[in-house]
Amino acid sequence: IMMNTNQAKRDARKLLSYLENAERIRVTTALGTDLSLSIKGRKAGAFYGQARRPKETASASFEVYVAPQEDSMNGVLMLDASFGYLGLVESPIEIHFENGKLISAQSADGGADKLLNYIDSFHDDTMYKPGEFGIGLNRMSRTRGVCYIEDESTYSTFHIGMGRNIALGGVQQAAGHFDIVTNKP
Predict the structure, then answer these.
(1) pLDDT at position 9, please?
(2) Which end of the chain is more exposed for a tag (fewer CB within 10 A), N or C?
């Protein structure tokens, strides 16, 4: 939480100005991520360590977020940073999304199985549906696999929040929410 909140706020406002005028997002990485999603009709928000009104608390997360249209995410995500609650990814996991649902995951080690088993543990098919697209703003954070808030907040990362997105402006009710974090979009 040592990040300069005014800098995070400036970064957030710049990103929010782009998202306010966008209907679609496409994100790519050098590792092979190529995802597209619709944010038409959705309002992006931000957490940057400052409360906006008296008696309001600030989130420890430093990020810009938006709930995608629930059936719109398509493409490949090369997950190479963090599983959120489950810690660091040891080797990249190739995840395929089709019409807003995670349809497959493969890895050279057991990482894909670890991810799929975790999703299955919720006993809710909605957990296979992305509910959030987020961009980390915290230049002081590092993706270390110790704290999911630090992982998803790390500057030069993006994350896909799986499952519930009601609090983020979406309509998806699910048994939970967790983020998978990828480096260098």
Answers:
(1) 94
(2) N
Contacts of 24 (CB under 8 A, 6+ apart): 36, 37, 38, 39, 40
Residue that is written with structure tokens 């497959």 in the block: 104
* CB-based contact 144:88 (threshold 8 Å): yes
Q: Is 117 helix (H, G, I), strand (E, B) or coil?
A: helix
Provide the 8-state DSSP code for 63.
E
Look at residue 114 and tell me whether its pLDDT is greater than 90: yes
Count the residues in the chain. Answer: 185
Q: Give the pLDDT of residue 13.
A: 97
Helix (H) or strand (E) holding 60: none
Q: What is the pTM of this model?
A: 0.94
Tell me how far CA of residue 135 lies from CA of 53, 64, 80, 113, in angstroms: 23, 5, 15, 26
